[in-house]
Amino acid sequence: MSIIAYYGSCPSEEFVKYAFPESNLAFFCYGINTASFMDDTKIELEGIEKWPEPVRKKMLFEAKRGFRERLKNANPHTLVIDFTRASRASLMRFKNSLLTVPYELLEAGAEAQRQAFTLFEIIPFGSREFWALVIDSLMEFCRFMSRELPKTEVIFLDVPPASEYRGVIVDSDTYAMDFCRWQIRYPICRMLIDFCLPRIENSRILMPFITPFSDDAAAYGPAPMHYSPQVWQETARLFHANGGFAGLARSSDPVVTLTSYSGLMDAFTRTASSSRPDLRRFGLDILHGALPFLFAKIREPADRYFRDPIDSQDVVAAFRWILGREPESAMTFLNHYALADRRELRNTLLRSTEFQNQVKHYAQT
Please, how many CA atoms are within 13 Å of residue 40, restricted to the half-sphere of its CB? Predict the structure, then answer.
């Protein structure tokens, strides 16, 4: 019997359930950020005794640590990974250790949330510190896998959000809004996958073999990241029919990436609710505006962007100092935000026709 493990959230859980139904699930880790996963320091949590049971249970489990040692002892033949939760949940620091902000805390009420801000230092998702911690831990995770589990077959799930909903529980506007949010998170997951692939030799990437959709039978309820069981069943069948791990791609295929992205644009255009023009415009602004720049970054070496990225304030500050104004539109902002580093940002503005025209006036004073 093959030994299987997964690390991530519902996509990994669902794929393992359908692709390896007869295997021994020797290890799983659900919803824990790699910055916490790679921290072996046990934590004695204090002050949460009266918090709701789901929150306490989640945090006490994570505080026990020992995740990588358990994974090493499990010695799985296959490890399935997805970064869906890493593109959404913040971190929090307790003394000198890190924990993942549990989803349950968001529903625990205002008093528990106020206590959390008192007990923990919140490191917001998307901040520079957040990504520095994530990337450092991912680097260590890749070294750990290569050193301790070199024979384990690692499958990274590249799971785009499903635009099509075949159910009745959720109204179309609510589903479409959630779909829009995941459009901006999806490239983050792709960048994390691309960061890890060249660093773990025995790794492959898997995308759904059919166009994904969600329905009311989806595990954890209908949502863009909760595929219908039919999607997972067919993906599992084709995974084995195509040769299993050996039949998967060794690296990200730009043709597949761009085809998937174009398909998402077309899907939203076809399925967006006509009763909400504002929602339709919001979704299309994301799909046609922000995402192409994020995908452009995916095709470049990951270190270049995670180690010294351009912050959003850098773009605004550069416009103010060099051109004497702020970016005139979101598209202008995104164009300059997508540049490689601050040097290129500065040089681009200095070479602009607008600045060159201003230089003539400066020379006369």
Answer: 7
